[in-house]
Write a structure and sequence with these properties.
The protein has a single domain, classed as Arc Repressor Mutant, subunit A. The protein is an all-alpha fold. The C terminus is likely disordered. α1 crosses α2, α1 packs across α3 and α2 packs across α3. The protein is elongated. It has 4 helices and no strands. 60% of the residues lie in helices and 0% in strands.
Length: 88
């Protein structure tokens, strides 16, 4: 049949709420980089990094950097579950 295709559903992650730039900033910051180092990697100003992080924290209901590894783990687990389900 022409024009038909199948979509695979995956479990939604809290990180799906973030823009691509916010996600990049939070991943780099979560890896231990400073605002300035994140800014250099993303070729933006440190103030913009702080803005992205502030927006991400608000969207995710976070209060501090210590919650980032857990959130990134949720994303990794959702991706791994989808991959494992695809093998069945």
């Amino acid at each position: 049949m022409v024009g038909l295709f199948q979509l695979e559903a995956r479990q939604r992650s809290p990180l799906d709420r973030l823009s691509p730039r916010e996600l990049s900033a939070i991943r780099l910051y979560g890896d231990g980089l400073s605002h300035k180092e994140v800014a250099q990697r993303m070729t933006i100003s440190p103030a913009t990094v702080r803005h992205y992080l502030r927006c991400a924290y608000k969207k995710l209901g976070m209060h501090d950097k210590s919650q980032i590894p857990w959130l990134l783990g949720v994303r990794d687990n959702a991706s791994n579950a989808t991959t494992a389900d695809a093998g069945n």
